[in-house]
Amino acid sequence: MKSRKTKQLSQKLWQGRFETGMDADMESLSISLHYDKKLIKEDIRGSLAQAEALTEAGVITSAECKKIQTALRVIEKDVLAGKDIFNSTDEDIHMAVERVLSERIGDAGKKLHTGRSRNDQVATDFKLYVKNCCASIIERIYALQGAVYEKACEYQTMIMSGYTHLQQAQPVYVSHYLLSFFWALERDASRFIHVSRMADELPLGSGALAGSAFPYDRKALAKKLGFGSVSQNSIDAVSHRDFALEFLSTGAILGTLLSRYAEDLIIWSSAECKYVQLGEAFTTGSSMMPQKRNPDSLELIRGKSGRLLGNFTSLFTAVKGAPLSYSRDLQEDKEPVFDTAETMDICLRVMSKVVASLVFNQDQILNKMDAAMLATDLADAIVKEGTPFREAHHISGNMIKKAEKRGCSFLDLPDSDWQSIPSGLRIKKELSFSTSIEMRNIQGGTGSRSVKQQLSKAKRLLSLHLKKKNEEKL
Q: Dihedral of CA 455/457/463/469: which sign?
């Protein structure tokens, strides 16, 4: 009896034209249930709507629809509760759910797949998943923006070195640096909004590739499932994975952004800089060296950027050679997306907490600020006296060179060196880090008025994000 049951359970729902079973190794290669069961909510949701559509098309009765929907909800509840209702031979979440459904309610369950292929079913479930992930990631980005905004307000007037090529370049406000992160994150949020829109087209009804032979109101079905429109071409609907590629590329871009800011903070938290200190909860010690306090949170975020790029490369490579409409290559679409979604979630959560924990050391920052960062201001001041910029640039550079040879700051050069410059002595008295910053109140600059404008706009954006979130909940 036991062997007969095992044989029965191993039968595939598509096995009608086959005489032999699947090779064991082939079965291992083929099965995806161990990871695509993450789509259980989306699969149940799509099947609930499919049952209603079949009822409207006259394929099943209202009583059968109710029976199917009740059973589907129980299956979802069982899976989410951790009950082991699937078999090791179930190929994927879609076939597993259909098998359990048919076993539990009989012929009514076997009717659910009428006019539907796994091709359009998978595409529908996957788009629902990506749309949900985009919404979640966008919320995480907004939370990180909030942490960045609060930290920028806290250090609104603190001065620091701005860097190019890892060399001190010009003085800026700490808040201006932090707000650069805020605006970059705003672009990332907009990209995920775009990805969500790209996934907002219903594939269900496309069948395997030619469309369902049991017509129903696809627009009504799209509305039930939360899609904004329906696919225009059945071949395109089941074969393209543009939305997944865009999700992965957007995740890689965001990961790269987090990595770059993580790199700055790692350098600035080093003993050589001591510009910033991370909260202890986001650092680790050494198993050997008792004194160590390592910025592992940031190093892990930096490392994850390679993983995110790899996920994009993986699917891009799989898709590029897959002929239309559907090929099994496309089964490789889900693991990279699942991994990117989970990686983005944890990276954004940790980064938000890291930013909130940051303490900037003003004394240490000021002690290491080189007066040579005012060389551009000197050149600009000389220009205002009527000298062409390229000549002024040469004069200023020459002053820096003299100071380096004498081992002093160029501001400490004797008056005789300054007197050779038009209005040199007056300019010397006016040069300072704070003056340099306040010369740059152009829109988007580091001047205090500009920073206040940025903070004001950032606050408005955060309020709009919160308002939109509350409206969506209603």
A: negative
Residue ranges per structural domain of the chain: 26-110, 118-211+228-367, 371-438
CATH superfamily of 118-211+228-367: Fumarase/aspartase (Central domain) (1.20.200.10)
Q: What is the dihedral of CA 42, 44, 46, 51, to 10 degrees?
A: 180
Cα–Cα distance between 117 and 63 in angstroms, integer? 23
Look up the pTM and report it: 0.92
Amino acid at residue number 275: Y
Determine the topology of domain 26-110 in CATH: Fumarase C; Chain B, domain 1 (1.10.275)
What CA–CA distances, in Å, run from 249 to 40, 180, 391?
25, 21, 46
**Active-site residue numbers?**
165, 286
Per-residue pLDDT of the chain (474 residues; tens, 9 = 90+): 333 333 333 456 656 666 667 777 777 787 889 888 999 999 999 999 999 999 999 999 999 999 999 999 999 999 999 999 999 889 899 999 999 999 999 999 999 999 999 999 999 999 999 999 999 999 999 999 999 999 999 999 999 999 999 999 999 999 999 999 999 999 999 999 999 999 999 999 999 999 999 988 999 999 999 999 999 999 999 999 999 999 999 999 999 999 999 999 999 999 999 999 999 999 998 889 888 899 999 999 999 999 999 999 999 999 999 999 989 899 999 999 999 999 999 999 999 999 999 999 999 999 999 999 999 999 999 999 999 999 999 999 999 999 999 999 999 999 999 999 999 999 999 999 999 999 999 999 999 999 999 999 999 999 999 888 887 776
Decide the pairing of beta strands 201-202 and 229-230: parallel
DSSP state of 432: -
> Which residue has 């006019």 as its token pair?
115
Closest C-alpha among 215, 309, 190, 187 to residue 256? 309
Instruction: Give the gyration radius of the chain's Cα atoms.
Output: 31
- Domain topology for 371-438: Ribonucleotide Reductase Protein R1; domain 1 (1.10.40)
Which two tokens mark 30?
A: 């083929």
